[in-house]
Amino acid sequence: MDMIEISEPKSPLFSEVKENFVVTNANSELHHFSVEGNVVKQISSTPDLNCSNITSIAWKSDHLVLGDADGNLSIWYLKGKVTKAESTHRGWIKKILFAPGRGNMKCLILFNDSVDIWDIKDVKLHSQLNYPRDIEAKIQDKDWAGSDRPILSLSDDPMLIADLKLKMFSSPLISPLNGASITTPSNVV
């Protein structure tokens, strides 16, 4: 009689998954950790990001973008452990969100009175929409409908899908304040 050894296959439920996370402290120091199984390792940290009170963080690929209460952006390149700082001159940054798509490093940045699109790879302002100068309703929230289509939620209830220049919208804006019609039949997306 032959003996056959039966081994149970390893369950995918028990495979160890590696997770990464970042935290900031009251001194605006940023710490990057990884967790694999029951092991937590500190990967790196920055001693000084030149930020005041950090209000928002977004992470994509090896770029980490932090916004603060003074309107400053700090970009941390995780692989190179290099940070860059840029002032937006806009005030408190409420939210930061990367656009979808591999290699697309555009960020939507929500302020109290406006929304900006920044190219994080080049650390450049791409476009902006200000309340009340450019739009009658206050911008409450933002998201991405696609890699080149930001969605804006406004205080008077409409949701707008815009182009990257924040000049063309999926539906007309009601009475823009700068006198020119932002949306006409020829530029409605």
From TrEMBL:
Q: Which GO terms describe its cellular component?
A: cytoplasm
- The protein in question is named WD repeat-containing protein 11-like protein
Organism lineage reads as:
Eukaryota, Metazoa, Ecdysozoa, Arthropoda, Chelicerata
| Gene3D superfamilies documented for this protein | YVTN repeat-like/Quinoprotein amine dehydrogenase
The protein's matches in InterPro entries, at most eight in alphabetical order, are given as: Beta-prop_WDR11_2nd, WD40/YVTN_repeat-like_dom_sf, WD40_repeat_dom_sf, WDR11
Q: Where is the WDR11 second beta-propeller domain?
A: 15-121
